[in-house]
C-alpha cells in the first residue's frame, strides 16, 4: 500500500513539474514573439501606434491563467479539491451504508 502511495505522489509531482515546464516554455515564446512584434512595430511606424501591446495583453492574459494553474495560485477548485470532495462523499456513503 505504501508503494502505491509513493507512486501516486510521484505521478502528482510529475504532472505539476510538467505544468510548470510548459508554463516556462510558453513564457519564453511569449517574450521572444512580443519582442519581435515590438521591433517590427518600431521599424514600421516608430511606435507612434503601439499595436504590439494588443498582442502582448491578449497573450498575457492566457499566460497569467496558465501560471495560476501551474503554480496552484487558485487551487480551491483544482485537482486536490476534487480529490478531497470525492473522499468526503465516499466516506459519507460508507457511513450511510453502515447505518442501514
TrEMBL record:
The transmembrane segments are: 23-45, 51-71
Looking up InterPro entries in the UniProt record yields: 2TM_dom
**Sorted alphabetically, which Pfam families does this protein's record hold?**
2TM (PF13239)
Which residue intervals define the domain 2TM in the entry? 12-91
List UniProt keywords, sorted A-Z. Membrane, Transmembrane, Transmembrane helix
UniProt-recorded name of the protein: 2TM domain-containing protein
Q: What is the native source organism of this protein? A: Aequorivita ciconiae
